[in-house]
Structure formats: structure tokens, C-alpha cells
Specification:
Structural class: mainly beta
Number of strands: 19
Radius of gyration: 21 Å
Strand content: over 45%
Length: 388
Amino acid sequence: MQKILGLGVCVLLLTSITMRAQEVEKQDTLDNGFVEQAAGMVEGLIDMVTFEKGRSTLSFYPMAGYSPRTGFEIGVMPVWRIKPRNAEECEFYRPTTFAPSLRFSTKGMYEVEFDALAFTSKRWMFISKFQYLFLPDEFYGIGNQQKEPPFSQFDINRFAFKSDILKGLNESWFVGLRLDFNYDEFSNVEGELLNPNVLGYEGGWANGIGPGLAFDSRNDLLYPSRGWFVIFSAAAYDNFIGSDYRFTSSSIDVRKFISLKGEESILGFQTVINATTGDVPFYKLSSIGGKRMLRGIAHPYRYMDKHSWFAQAEWRKHIWWRLGGVVFAGTGKVSPEFFQSPFSNLHVVSGAGVRFKVLPDEGLNFRIDFGISNHGDNGVYFTIREAF
């Protein structure tokens, strides 16, 4: 009941902000009132942590949040944004964004990330992420079933680097490679659920390389209002690239965006299918939770298995000034066999969120999302960029 009430509060907050924005538009008397003064103060604070030079903009943003997995979090995220030299000559506007971050939590987590989305004048695309993570975590077991305690407690030390390196054949089609390098070390294991019979218990390297293919017709990279984005990738993990495990993985991610009223109201749809074969360590299995997938499932590895699929939809609405809001819903599952009873025992999530535009003329948003699921999970997320 508390989770349902929490979602209701989010929706009511979003609705009230929308109604307030409409009143602001209708009442000229508020132009110089408290609302405009508050907006001016926020703009002033943003200017104090934003530095512009030429095509580059560097901004510093605080991070805060909560999830059952990590506890309360605090951190900082600088965002470096670089506009292309000849944006007017490109059919699709693709600026480069670098977003390093440092986070700590009350449960003892500390994490360093470097998130890069880069484009060159020669139509190269780099979608890359480096992560170092220490986290006291829980292992819920493998499978799509609802999870019941007792769970195993353990500490993770993780180094991970993943990158899709793609070359544009034209404005829309890209081909290239996926690189995936991971080193995991586990310690202080408590409980019987995570034991030496679980593949991956010893940790180690899981390194893979394989082909990638993408189609991108979106009119904007970070906040599209129309177009398609499709990316397919596959990777082989083997000893010849230093992997301690031998398996394969493949995925396809399909996204569609529809403008309902200019760029003020947008519908977004996403479907993702993941498949793995071979001796897959538990920490490389397919999953459906977290801040970018089914956002009502806070722990990204609460449900994991060799195969997974999920679909989600989101309505995005600009409200006023730099503020926007979203309402989202999604469903999916994991399974040991490819498309085994694909529509039974589904996990269904719904939620709402608030958006704050980092730069006044760009689609880069700081987002706050709250979601719940039909199986009692919930998640709250504070992060940069849209979920998809």
C-alpha cells in the first residue's frame, strides 16, 4: 500500500506541476512574481557551476538518491558537452557528452564511473562506459520466480569497461565492434544461496568481443521526438582474449519515438531481447532491472537468467521552463531457455518521474524516477540522461 501511495504522490505532483505551469502561461501577473524569481535564482546557481568555452560546456551537478540495494547515495557528476563543428551540415545533430561521476552510500558503496557518448566528424560513434564499484550486495538466486529470503550477502570489487565502436556508413547506418571487459572479485560471502556450485562464484575475468550494427534516424540524440534507433551486438567470451569463462552473448535493442505535439509531448517505446549460451558466470547473465530497464525493479540482478526480454513505453511532457515529467510502464521476464513461455509470470512495472534540463537549449536532462512492480519491488533513481 505504501508503494502504491508513493506512486500516487508522484503522479499527483506531476499533475499539479502541469496545472501550475498552465496557470503561469495564462496569468501575465505572475511574470514578475515569486515563480519567476525562483526560476531566476536557480538559473543563477546553475551559471555558477557551468562553464562555457567555444563549443564546450562543462557543468557540475550533485547526485543524491536512494535504493534498497545501496541505501542513501550522495556524489558529484561533472558533465562535459561538446557540440559538433558543423551541426548545420549534419542531418542528425549528434553532440558528444562525457559524464564522469563519483558516488558513496550509507551501505558502504563507492563507485567511480566514466560514461561517454562520442561522435567524430568522420561518422565514428563511441558508446562507452568504465566502472569501478565496491558494494556490499545480495545474491537472490537465478530465475524469474519471486525471491524470498534468506539471501546471500557478499562484497563486490568490480572493474568493467564496455564500448560499442561503430563507423557510420551514412547518416543512419553504423557497423563496428563491441568490446566488453570485466573483472569481478567477491569476498565476505554469507549464506548458502551463493556457493561454489554457482558458476562465477570465484569471480575473475569475463572478456568478450564481437560485431555491432546500428540504425539511427532519431532527430536528436539525447531527447528525440521522432525516429528509430536499433542496435544489435554479439560477443564471444573466450580464453584467447583473457576470459576465464567461455560463452556468447547477443542483444537487440529497438526504440521508436513519436511526436504528439511538436516536441512538447512525446511517446517513446523500447523492446530489448538478450540471449546467452555456454558457461555464463552469474554476474554476466541477462537481467531486467535497474535505472534504464524495468525501473520498478531496483536491483538490476534480482531477476537474471540466460535469456531475457522486456518492453517499456514512456510519455514525456515538457511542463514549464526547464521542467518536464514522464509517466512510464513496462513488462518482461528472464528464462533459462530462449522464449520459454514468454508471456507467463511477467514482471510488470509502472511509475512517474521529473526531468530538469541541464542546458537550456539541449536535450540533456537530470532525471528522478520512481517505479513499482506487481511483485512488490520498487526503485527510486537520480541520474543523468533518459532511460532510453
